[in-house]
Amino acid sequence: MGEMPGAREELERLGRALRAQLVELIDDLTPGADLGLLFLDEPNVADWHEPLRYSYSALFRGERPEGLGAADIALRAAGLLGPAGWDIAGPQEEIDGTRRTYVLTACHPYGIRIEVRTGDHNSAVFYSGHSPAQALREPEEFNWPEPARTPETLTPGYVLCYESETRLIATPERVL
Predict the structure, then answer these.
(1) What is the pLDDT along the chain (176 residues), one digit of tens a residue?
(2) What whole-number distance in Å separates Cα of residue 125 and Cα of residue 30?
(3) What are the φ/ψ torsions at residue 143 (nearest 5 degrees)?
(4) Count H helices, E strands: the chain?
(5) Whole-angstrom Cα distance, residue 137 to residue 73?
(6) Most C-beta atoms within 10 A of its C-beta, which of 6, 66, 132, 153?
(7) Greatest alpha-carbon span in the chain
(8) How is 99-136 classified by DSSP, letter by letter?
């Protein structure tokens, strides 16, 4: 069970596409941000079920330009992503007491997700992005090990007990 042909290249392509879109958004919405802090070094395990699935993800914090409100940033993000073919949810307004936060979620047909979150209570703009989870290897079939005890290897005075469908344990006869 080896690596799936082309899977790593596709994951890398999606990672590059995620980074390029985040760079475009960050440059437009929070000019002057240090893009050297936008890391997409290695994919993370996104799903631990067999076969493992990997994805790229990134978090970035920028500062809103002075004079632009949080709602303006969210609307500009929608204006950039919508015409480029992204499915847009929002911007949604969340109110927690006196704090007002705007959240825009965008999904690309390739499965890349980006969220832009900003609020009126500070000038921070938070970006998060995820590529779709992708398996790199073929699934491996699990083979149960041979039992440690069999009727032939049983110590005298013990019996085999079926604790589960696949595992046998040796138990003293007097316990039964």
Answers:
(1) 578 888 889 989 999 988 988 898 998 888 888 888 888 778 888 888 888 899 999 989 888 888 888 888 888 888 888 888 888 887 777 777 777 788 888 989 888 899 998 888 888 889 999 999 988 888 878 788 877 777 777 777 777 766 544 455 555 555 44
(2) 8
(3) -110, 125
(4) 2, 10
(5) 40
(6) 132
(7) 85
(8) EEEEEEEEE-TTS-EEEEEEETTSSEEEEEEEPPPEE-
